[in-house]
Amino acid sequence: MVDILERVFRRFELFAEELGGIVYLFIETLVWMVRPPFRLTVILKQMEFIGVQSGFIVFLTGIFTGMVFALQTSYAFRLFAAENLVGPSVALALSRELAPVLTGLMVTGRAGSAIAAELGTMKVTEQIDALYSMAISPVQYLVFPRVISAVIMVPLLAVLFQFVGFWGSYFVGVYLLDLNSYRFIQDTVYALELKDVYTGLVKAAFFGLTIAVVGCYKGFYAEGGAEGVGKAATHSVVISSVTILVSDYFLTALMFGR
Q1: R_g over Cα of the chain
Q2: The Cα angle at residue 90 between residues 84 and 94, in degrees rounded to 5
């Protein structure tokens, strides 16, 4: 019994230590956001890596998510002779939930793991220590550009996801299920509100922040050579993915709760 309690407290202690480290890194990043130099070239490079290079996988995920969601909802609504609700349902689901969450998960798997692996490699090869020796803050040079780039690019990727997802659902609804094209678009425009769009973008920005901060933290504290770098990348994806799914519930409850 004592051994079990010791393990539980040890797990809690490790969790609290890691959470504190992530929060501290985030606060330190906020401080460097208002201190020059701002290294615009590095930021643009990270925006290209996190955003542009993730565009294709987000495009594919978005279009097929919209298509399969339209296919599934059409079967359900047909039972109640309410096929005209397919378009609004897909649009609302994409804007509020599917676009920000699935975009975050895709970026986590592609860019979040790469951030942890890159910084982890720099850590174990003492390149980060070299930055300290040259009086360059690793947080300013390595973390800040990745965080600000993720916060900007993940919402833009979510917009891409919403756009292609809706037109994927339009293709399935109109051309495969013979729904009325005018009603499909008109009902969607009527049902979709501005709040549905911007709340999804707020979620996406928060998820981008989570991906970058967690990836940088795990990379910064990687140790143990190549094996440690691999573990840092894996832990980064797992922690970010779970955080996205858990925080999505609380953000939804905060934004849409009655």
Answers
A1: 21
A2: 160
Q: Which of 212, 203, 30, 24 is nearest to 110 (CA)?
A: 212
Amino acid of residue 155: P
Q: Rounded to 5 degrees, what angle do the CA atoms 96, 99, 101 make? A: 85
Global pTM reads 0.91
- Convert the pLDDT of each residue in 114-159 to its tens digit: 999 999 999 888 888 888 888 788 888 899 999 999 999 999 999 9
Give whole-number Cα distances, 121 to 24, 105, 114, in Å: 22, 23, 10
Write out residues in the chain with pLDDT < 70, as ranges. Answer: 1-2, 257-258
In Å, how far are 44, 123, 174, 179, 204 from 128, measured between CA atoms?
21, 5, 55, 58, 30
CA distance 209 to 57: 20
pLDDT in tens, 46-72: 999 999 999 999 999 999 999 999 999
**What's the DSSP call for residue 80?**
T
Half-sphere exposure of 105 (CA within 13 A, CB side): 15
Q: How far, in Å, CA of 218 to CA of 30, rounded?
A: 18
